[in-house]
Amino acid sequence: MAIATSGLHHVTAIGGDPQRNVDFYLRTLGLRMVKTTVNFDDPGTYHLYYGDEAGRPGSLLTFFPWKGVPGGRHGAGQATTTSFSVPEDSIGWWKQHLEAAGVETSRVRTADSEEALTFHDPDGLAISLVAHPQGDPREPWDTPAVPAERAIRGLHSVTLSVRDEESTAGMFTDGLGLRFSHQDGNRFRFEAGEGGPGTIVDVLVTPDAPQGLVAGGTVHHVAWRVPDDATQRAWRAELAGKGVQVTSILDRQYFHSIYFREPGGTLLELATEDIGFTADEPLLELGRSLKLPPWLEPDRAQIEAALPALNLPDENNPEVAEAIAAREGAAERG
Q1: Is residue 327 over pLDDT 80?
Q2: What pTM did the predictor assign?
Q3: 21, 20, 14: which is closest to 50 by C-alpha?
Q4: Which of 19, 248, 295, 316 has the most CB atoms at less than 10 Å from its CB?
Q5: Pfam families this protein is in (predicted)?
Q6: Distance between the two ends of the chain, CA-based, in angstroms?
Q7: pLDDT digits (tens, 9 = 90+) for 230-245
C-alpha cells in the first residue's frame, strides 16, 4: 500500500425530524453546527454537519434528516456504532447529563481499558462516548450545556459489522493503509498512523446477524482523510487498479470525495482535508445560514421553500451569543 489515511474524516448518517436532530446534537451532545446545506444529490433535504469549533476533519458527524423516514435495521454490512472521544474522568458526568435529558445509557469498560457510555439518538443511531486512557489533546467546542472540561473532543472510532473479517481486513490494510492493532474475541481493531482517538475502526464479526438496512437511524457512509487533490487522484487510480469499483471525484464544496464499498458492504469515502467549512462563511458564523453550491443557487427560492425552518441555539454563533449577553447585561444595569 503506497498511500495511507491519517484517520477518520467524518461519519454520515440518516436521521428523521431535522429540528429534533439539531436539538439533540447541539443541545444534548454539545456539538457545533458547522454547516447547514443540502444533500447535493437530493436538495429536498438538509445535509447538517456537526463538529468542533471549525469542523475539523475527525470531529464530524453529519446527517441527511428526512422527517418521517422509515427506520433502518442495524446488521451486517454497515457501520453499527459511531463513537466520540471524551475526557477520561467525564463518563459519570455524561451519564447524569444524558439521563437527565431522558436518554437511557449503558456503562461499559472495553478490553483496552477504555471506559465507555453507550446509548441511541432519537432516531435509534447507536452512539458511544469513549474515555481513552491516554487522553485526547484535541480542543472541544464549549457550550453552557456541556462545558469544555467534559466536552466531546471528536470522533473516537467506528464499528463495522461484517459476517467475515478477512476481506474487510484486507481492504483496511491494503486499501486504506491501516494497521491491525489487536483482536478481542470477535472484534478486530485497526488504526491509522500512530493510532488513538480519531484513527480507529473496529470490525465486529457477526456471522448470524441480519443484513443491515440503511435508512433512519443508521450510518450511510464512513469517510477517511486524504490530504489533498493530488493524493486523492493517485489513490483513486491505485484502488481502481486493484479492481475496486470507485466513483469519479465529486465536489462537495468543503472537500472532494470518492466513494467505494469495502467487501463486507459498508460504503466508504475518501475526503480531502485541505478546503474546510470557512470556504463560504466566517468561522464565527458557521452553520447559521443555508449554504448552497453554485450549481444549486439558481434554485434557492424553491429549495428554501421545501425545507423546514431550523431553530439553532444562540451559542452556535459566538458573536450572537455575546451580543445577546451584552444586551441583557445592559438591560439589567439600566
Answers
A1: no
A2: 0.94
A3: 21
A4: 316
A5: Glyoxalase (PF00903)
A6: 67
A7: 999 999 999 999 999 9
144 vs 189, higher pLDDT = 189
The C-alpha cell that represents 114 in the structure block: 477504555
Q: Copy the grid coordinates of residue 122.
A: 432519537
Please give the Cα distance from 73 to 265 (Å, whole number).
Answer: 14
Which cell goes with 46? 438538509
Residue 169 buriedness (CB in 10 A; 0-12 / 13-18 / 19+): buried
Model pLDDT for residues 168-195, shown as the tens digit of each residue = 999 999 999 999 999 999 999 999 998 9
Helix (H) / strand (E) containing 300: helix 300-306
d(CA 161, CA 113): 22
Q: Which residue has the cell 467524518?
A: 10
Tell me how crowded residue 107 is: count the other CB atoms within 10 A of its CB: 13
Closest CA to 153 of 56, 283, 250, 241: 56
- 134 pLDDT tier (thresholds 50, 70, 90): confident
CB 202 within 8 A of CB 159: yes
Nearest residue to 33 via CA among 13, 9, 63, 11: 63
Q: Considering only CA atoms, which of 1, 5, 56 is closest in space to residue 192?
A: 5
Nearest alpha-carbon partner for 156 in 194, 182, 195, 186: 195
Q: Return the residue matching grid coordinates 462516548.
A: 129
Helices (H), the chain: 18-22, 91-100, 165-170, 229-241, 300-306, 318-333
Domain boundaries, the chain: 8-333
List the one residue out of 93, 308, 328, 125 whose CA is nearest residue 215. Answer: 125
Backbone angles phi, psi at 62, to 5 degrees: -125, 160
Name the phi and psi angles at 267, rounded to 5.
-75, 125
Architecture of the domain made up of 8-333: Roll (3.10)
171 to 4, 23, 190, 263, 313: CA distances (angstroms): 12, 37, 11, 7, 41
